[in-house]
Design a protein that fits this description.
Layout (H helix, E strand, L loop, with lengths): L17 E6 L6 H13 L2 E7 L10 H11 L6 E6 L4 H7 L4 E5 L3 H17 L4 E5 L10 H9 L10 H15 L9
Parallel strand pairs: 1-2, 1-4, 2-3, 4-5
The protein binds 4'-phosphopantetheine (PNS).
The site of 4'-phosphopantetheine has 9 residues, from β1 and α4.
Length: 186
């Protein structure tokens, strides 16, 4: 039997599956790291979109948060870290060629807010799907807000944030106590 190669149907060109993982990440926790790692295995590319809304008076500036996350994921080619200016998330996702929004779900208490956002985003853009991912159990109670509070009050956060974040929290605290102390990481 002859086999005419020219009649083979062209292999469909697969569009890379891009996901956006938006958040404040002030600072990134090991729960976020866990979600990014899971997402990077599931999608061709995951864009960590750091909300640059200074109205939320973050502890770390958007540039600092981006720099920290880039450092944590250095060498991970399919993890991109970017800032997101506070416009509509679906518009940002569209600009990045993303068809998925990733959000972490830690506990039932997260659900209501996340459910509202997911349905609103779906209403705004039907082509973008929200995917919820659960971090490892040991991070279900970790949040950036609690990390900052515990650290500020002298508690131990080791194991809940990347070591780099612990360093940056220490420098930030020293700087806030004594603004003349030169930041080690400009
Ligand atoms: O980590 P956070 O602070 O809970 O992240 C919140 C974030 C950035 C995902 C949310 O504030 C957001 O999506 N902002 C974009 C504004 C928007 O698109 N709003 C309408 C859809 S809900």
């Amino acid at each position: 039997m002859t086999h005419d190669q020219t009649s083979e149907p062209a292999a469909p060109t697969k569009r890379p599956r891009v996901a956006v993982y938006p958040g404040s990440f002030d600072p990134i926790t090991n729960g976020h790291v866990d979600i990014i790692e899971r997402g990077s295995r599931l999608f061709d590319r995951i864009v960590v979109a750091v909300l640059a809304n200074e109205a939320k008076t973050p502890l770390f500036s958007a540039a600092e948060r981006v720099q920290i996350i880039r450092e944590v994921f250095r060498g991970r080619d399919n993890v991109e870290v970017d800032t997101f200016d506070g416009g509509l998330l679906v518009d940002y996702a569209e600009r990045k060629g993303a068809s998925v929004i990733v959000r972490g779900l830690r506990a039932v208490s997260d659900f209501e807010y996340e459910f509202q956002m997911a349905l609103m985003n779906r209403r705004l853009d039907h082509d973008i799907e929200t995917v919820f991912m659960m971090p490892a159990e040991q991070y279900t109670y970790t949040s950036s807000r609690l990390i900052k509070e515990v650290f500020r009050l002298g508690g131990e956060v080791r194991g809940l944030v990347p070591p780099l974040v612990e360093d940056r929290l220490r420098s930030k605290q020293a700087m806030l106590r004594d603004p003349r102390s030169a930041p080690r990481h400009a």
